[in-house]
Write a structure and sequence with these properties.
This protein has about 160 residues and is an alpha/beta fold. The chain has a single domain, classed as Mannitol-specific EII, Chain A, CATH 3.40.930. Helix content is about 40%, strand content about 20%. Strands 1, 2, 3, 4, 5 and 6 form a six-stranded mixed β-sheet that branches.
Length: about 160
């Protein structure tokens, strides 16, 4: 499985409307309102926000990866959003966030969930990749940037 296997234009927001951390997380979670893989969207929201309370998922360099695990999904879910108006995210480096990648895993898919988190983090550590995402204007361009970057990686 690749990150791009989880994303489609339906799950990409080229310009988040949100101006706060919780609002951005909720905006991405709301993309799954009618998704048949979701059993209970509010439990998904609860899992991600509870994880966020433990420690900020703003990992630095303008990037955050809110995530959680729950049995109220049938599969791993992902969504991505970006904003040109940085969001205060209580990030580990103290800097605001422009790029947000949401990952929701099923409780029994822990290994795959961890591998995907690791891959997303490695991708986002690349300055050129982040810059390309920040400059992208459409979900199609964002998906193409992910596609090109993942050509360098093996299946998870």
């Amino acid at each position: 499985m690749k990150v791009l296997d989880l994303l489609s234009d339906k799950y990409v927001i080229p310009e988040l409307k949100s101006q706060t951390k919780d609002a951005a997380i909720n905006e991405l979670i709301d993309l799954f309102k009618d998704d048949p893989r979701v059993i209970d969207l509010e439990k998904v929201r609860e899992a991600v926000l509870e994880r966020e309370k433990i420690m900020s998922t703003g990992v630095g360099k303008g990037f955050a990866i809110p995530h959680g695990k729950t049995n109220t999904v049938n599969d791993i879910l992902a969504a991505f959003g970006k904003t040109n108006h940085p969001i205060d995210y209580d990030s580990l480096d103290g800097q605001p966030v422009n790029l947000v990648f949401l990952l929701v895993g099923k409780d029994n898919l822990v290994s795959k969930h961890i591998k995907l988190l690791s891959r997303i983090s490695r991708m986002m550590n690349k300055d050129e990749f982040r810059l390309n995402l920040l400059n992208a204007k459409t979900s199609e361009v964002i998906l193409d940037i992910f596609r090109k970057e993942e050509e360098n990686y093996f299946e998870v």
